[in-house]
Structure formats: C-alpha cells, structure tokens
Amino acid sequence: MKLFGSGILFGTPLTDATGAAIANPTPVQFATLQDVSGDISFEEKLLYGSYQLPIAIARGKGKLAFKAKNADINAAIVGDLFFGLAKTGGIKLINSNFAAAVPAATPWTITIAPPSTGTYVADLGVINASTGLPLTRVATAPTTGQYSVNVATGVYTFASADANMAVLISYEYSATSSAGPKYINISNQLMGYAPTFKAGLNVPYQGKNATLVLNMCMSSKLTLPFKNDDFSISEFDFSAFADASNNVGYIALSE
Asked: Do residue 151 and residue 199 come from a single domain?
C-alpha cells in the first residue's frame, strides 16, 4: 500500500514524573505535525566457524526509537508527556523593551503596571532608547546612566540628571488566567524517574490506513529550536518498550 503525509499522532499520558499512574489521562494530539520517523532495530549476533561467512545468525537486543516534529508547542506535550509535571493555569511572561520616559520632575520614578493586572517579578534591564546603551543597575541613589529598582513594587528610580530620558524596560511578570495560558514548574527529579505514555499514529491515504500503536513509551529528548525568519519546529524523541503484559503494541495495515 502507498502512504503519503506525516499522519496524525496522539500521546496519552500513563504515569507522571514519580511513576504514579494517572487515573483519568487526557490524550494530546501533536498538532501541525511535520513528520514522524521510527527506527525498529535489533542487534545481530553472528556465529562463525573456520569459514569466512557466519554459519548462524541470531537476533539480539532490540530498540524502537521514534522522532516527531510538530509546529504547535503544546503545554500538554511538554508537561504531561515529557516532564510528567502538572500544568498550572496562569501567565508567566517577559515584557521586553517596554517604552517609557523618566519624569521631568522628582521623584524621577517609573512604576511598572504589568498587563492583565499582573504582578511584577524580576528586572531584566533598562536601555537608553536614544543611544541603545544599557543603564547600570545600582542598589540605591542612581547617578547619570544608572537606575535602581524595588522588586517588591516594580518601581524604577533614575537620576535627576536623566530627567525626560526615553528608556526601554524589560521585566518578568506573572498574572492569573482562568483559561488558555499554562505554565509548568520544572522540578528536579531523582534519576530513573520519567513519565510514560501510550502513542498512537494513523496515516490515511486514498481510503487506506496504516496505524501504529505503542503501549508504553518514554521520551528522552525535547528540542525547541527558535530561528530568525522561520517557524519553530519542535522535535520530540521517544522510545517504546513492553508493558506489564509484555506487549509492545501493534501495527495495522489496510493491505
């Protein structure tokens, strides 16, 4: 049978980062899938006698290694399938080069009000918008070309000599969100622990289908490439292994 395209790939989380079973797993689709490739390989064990060519060949250890590339970076793929850590609803963002101006009169301060009624988290630097040069952060009493910041309140203080100066402020902030954005707090896990999931791939073409289901999988690598003037295509590597019943899965073909 002939096949065309990357197909449709699903992952269903089975266990979390600690190995605990997930009672009601939510399957996730690898959206805007670019390609899926799999290598099913085995070691060859060759037996030789006194002749040049082997007199017997046996199959040794095997490996089922797969790689999926998709253009939609999904929090469920990162959190559930790769890290096995919970997703939290909310916004965590960096606001880069926020344009503002030092007041003309005392107290020469700029108070950051993050979007979405957010909370200021951390300073990421200030740039003189006219010269493009960065200002130097100091603890208190800034002089020309310097600034200080109260991280608890998001208030930036500048020197009186820099009054009216246009600045670009970069900072990190967080905000609550009832739906949509999610974040994953990445915690350090003991070696050996990793989440597992069930993978299902379907490739339809001309009324026929090829289906591959792998009962137990574990991801070893997640690549997040970001390029100038191009789309980001993430790469998700995973391997399959036998489940508790010693079954790996199945391959179903229309012919």
From this structure: no
